[in-house]
Amino acid sequence: MKRIFFGIMILVIFVMVGAVLAEEAAKPASSEPATPTAKEALEKGIIIARMEIAGGIENREPVGAASAFPATQEKVWCFVEFQNVDKETTVNYVWSLGEKEVDKVPQTIKASSRHRTWSNKTIAGRKGDWKVDIIDESGTVLKSASFKIE
Question: Does residue 5 lie in a domain region?
Fold first, then answer.
């Protein structure tokens, strides 16, 4: 009798777990953007269509885009293409080496349907994991890019 009771209890537990999993799977996917920063950027009307880390800029376009550079690289460039900028706004390019902020470069982005701009950083042989954050006037990170100096 104990075996039958134990078997029924196990069956009930499996049915309950299955019902919970089925309920979760049946929930509709969220239509919200993946991150709060993406949602806030869309609400502000600023879209970063392209962000590339490169070894240089020629004819207003990045050249030598890469995710790693040798320590002999003199400068690294962060190219950004904004779209749908409703009004003139200021963004900051925040350059970090590891967890330490190295530089903050403000730039004014003019109202336009397409605005390309860039910032560069003299590397001076500083090896490690670098990151550039594009931050708006309210402190929202609009987009980030990482690269390594080897």
Answer: no
Biggest alpha carbon–alpha carbon distance for the chain? 84
If one counts the domains in the chain, the total is 1
Asked if the structure places residue 22 within a domain, the reply is no
Which of 88, 140, 92 is closest to 109 using CA atoms? 88
Q: pLDDT tens digits for 31-52?
A: 444 444 545 555 556 899 999 9
Write the pLDDT tens digit of every residue in 88-135.
Answer: 999 999 999 999 999 999 999 999 999 999 999 999 999 999 999 999
20 inside domain: no
In a domain, 118, yes or no: yes
Mean pLDDT of 58-82: 96
pTM of the model: 0.70
CATH of the domain at 83: 2.60.40.1930
